[in-house]
Write a structure and sequence with these properties.
388 residues, alpha/beta, seven-stranded mixed sheet, three-stranded antiparallel sheet, 12 helices, 16% strand, globular
């Protein structure tokens, strides 16, 4: 395949650019991955078994001893977190409108009511200033999404939750390994701050398997045990069902893959940060673009590198990137409050202006651990040339 740089006369044999390059990431750790998979197959411990146990213990250790419960996927993880908190049909759960649908999907599946709020225009995360105005006697929880790899501003959210006796559910599908810094200087990993937390190991995540996978977390041992039971048909002892549960288990092969990749998580996150720094440095003087903002109280592990286009040219920029064979994505084209499935409160255009404007103006560039300087230069030069 031929790639054009700034003009058709400049041709490169550059490796094909991927939105997420899982192939080359695998090749770099192939020997370890292949051995880990073979060990599970040889043992036939396909559900549960040593691989799941080892990964659970190692992930818990990585997160500072946090109780960790693996499960089948990130959506199940969110649902099980809410089930463990005994939320009842009709209870209201506050959730940001600018996020992936799974965050609201599980609320609907459990008969709960999503109450949407707007996000911060810089961080894309839930805006704490919007929360108290929507709290009612039926409000039971706040879902905080650490979007695109950066922590939400947890300290003010925690104060609101404590004041109104609300649970905090962290959706940490995109920020595993990121840390939040409190005003006293202490730090905690995203996913270890709220009442309960969930994550996803979908292949494109910073810590991703080769299929589906997820996990729940809690510092509360009793809640962790309850989530463990719910994920296993409500059983603590086989065939004795203490609570209504679901079937949501991480399989041994995926756990073995994740255990290998966990050793490289910090390295992977650092690689993403380096790519983001190069992107931002190259694009900083393009007046039509806002490069990703990093809050002082959070590290950023760049699950996505998301630009905000200020002049209404997002769709034309996307077309230009497509023409140059540069993968890109709009996360997300429609805010949740305007999605037919979740608009239960009669929301309309203009209700959450920041979320709506972001949906019209954001675009994400390729972001993964295998991007090299030639690819980064080609991507950024293509963007810069569009605005010349």
């Amino acid at each position: 395949m031929i790639y054009y740089l700034s003009s058709p006369t400049e041709v490169s044999d550059m490796r094909k650019i991927e939105l997420v390059d899982l192939k080359h990431q695998y090749l770099n750790i192939k020997s370890e991955i292949d051995v880990a998979i073979a060990e599970v197959i040889e043992s036939t411990a396909f559900i549960g078994g040593f691989a799941v146990k080892n990964f659970k213990e190692n992930l818990s250790k990585y997160l500072g001893g946090l109780n960790t419960i693996p499960c089948a996927n990130g959506t199940d993880a969110l649902q099980i977190c809410m089930m463990a908190l005994d939320l009842k049909p009709g209870d209201e759960v506050i959730v940001p409108s600018f996020t992936f649908a799974a965050t609201a999907e599980v609320i609907g599946l459990l008969g709960l009511k999503p109450t949407f709020v707007d996000v911060n225009a810089q961080t894309f995360n839930i805006d704490p200033a919007t929360i108290e105005a929507v709290i009612t006697p039926k409000t039971k929880a706040i879902v905080v999404v650490h979007l695109f790899g950066q922590s939400a501003d947890m300290e003010p959210v925690m104060k609101i939750a404590q004041k109104h006796n609300l649970f905090i559910i962290e959706d940490n599908a995109q920020a595993i390994g990121a840390k939040y810094t409190f005003s006293n200087g202490s730090q905690k990993f995203c996913g270890s701050i709220g009442t309960v937390a969930s994550t996803s190991f979908f292949p494109s995540k910073n810590l991703g398997c080769y299929g589906d996978g997820g996990a729940m977390f809690s510092a509360d041992a009793q809640l962790a045990e309850k989530m463990r039971m719910i994920a296993n048909h409500g059983m603590n002892e086989q065939y004795y069902h203490e609570v209504i549960g679901v079937n949501s288990r991480l399989d041994g092969i995926q756990a073995a893959i994740l255990d290998v990749k966990l050793k490289y998580l910090d390295t992977y996150n650092e690689a993403r940060m380096k790519v983001a720094k190069k992107y931002s440095e190259a694009l900083k003087d393009v007046p039509q673009l806002i490069t990703p903002f990093q809050a002082l109280n959070s590290t950023h592990v760049y699950h996505q590198y998301t630009l905000t286009v200020k002049d209404g040219s997002r769709d034309k920029l996307q077309q230009h990137l497509n023409e140059k064979l540069i993968p890109n994505k709009v996360y997300y084209p429609v805010p949740l409050h305007l999605q037919k499935a979740y608009n239960l409160n009669g929301y309309k255009n203009g209700d959450f202006p920041v979320s709506e404007e972001l949906c019209r103006s954001v675009i994400s560039l390729p972001m993964h651990t295998e991007l090299d300087d030639e690819q980064i230069n080609f991507i950024t030069n293509t963007v810069i040339n569009f605005y010349k």
